Amino acid sequence: MIKDILIVGLGSFIGGTLRYMLSIAFNKIVRTCTFPIGILVVNVLGCFFIGVLYSYFKNRVGESLLPLLLMTGVLGGFTTFSTFSLEVLQLYQQNELLKAILYVIVSVGIGILACFLGCIVGNK
């Protein structure tokens, strides 16, 4: 268990660092744009790579720390949006379309509401 936690922590450090570096780089490239292009690019890349890794590791047999390092750690630190997207896709693949749609609506809606309420609390 400790080894798993350390692997995820290492991956999270790498992913978080990559997220920061790529976000800064893209925002410098598109300086005149007030749209958060850096994080958008990070989210899309994270979704792409978690799809690649999930498909690759899904059919591999055996206990490996690589999915834990790369998917949970690196991509989890890079963007949690990738994990969210994968979970929606998995619900869809399990023929749980209603649950997938509800998960998207509730996650985004409540997430924005929680952020708004957090700002109100933080300003007091």
Structural notes for this entry:
With 124 residues, the protein is mainly alpha-helical. The chain has one domain (1-122). It is 83% helix and 0% strand. It has five helices and no strands. The chain has helices at residues 2-29, 37-58, 66-78, 80-93, 97-122. Helix 2 crosses helix 4 (80-93). The chain is globular and about 50 Å long. The mean pLDDT is 89.
| Overall pLDDT confidence | 89
- Beginning-to-end CA distance, first to last residue: 40 Å
What is the number of strand segments?
0
Strand content: under 5%
Shape estimate: globular
Residue share in helix = over 70%
Give unreliable regions as ranges: none
Give the helix/strand class: mainly alpha
Biggest pleated sheet: none
Number of domains: 1
How many helices in DSSP terms? 5
SSE string: HHHHH
Keywords: Cell inner membrane, Cell membrane, Ion channel, Ion transport, Membrane, Metal-binding, Sodium, Transmembrane, Transmembrane helix, Transport
Function: Fluoride-specific ion channel. Important for reducing fluoride concentration in the cell, thus reducing its toxicity.
Family: Belongs to the fluoride channel Fluc/FEX (TC 1.A.43) family.
GO molecular function, one term: metal ion binding
Annotation keywords:
single chain; mainly alpha; 5 helices; 0% strand; ion channel
Chart the SSEs and their pairings:
Layout (H helix, E strand, L loop, with lengths): L1 H28 L7 H22 L7 H13 L1 H14 L3 H26 L2
Helix pairs in contact: 1-2, 1-3, 2-3, 2-4, 3-4, 4-5
Membrane topology: Multi-pass membrane protein
Pfam families: CRCB
Function: Fluoride-specific ion channel. Important for reducing fluoride concentration in the cell, thus reducing its toxicity.
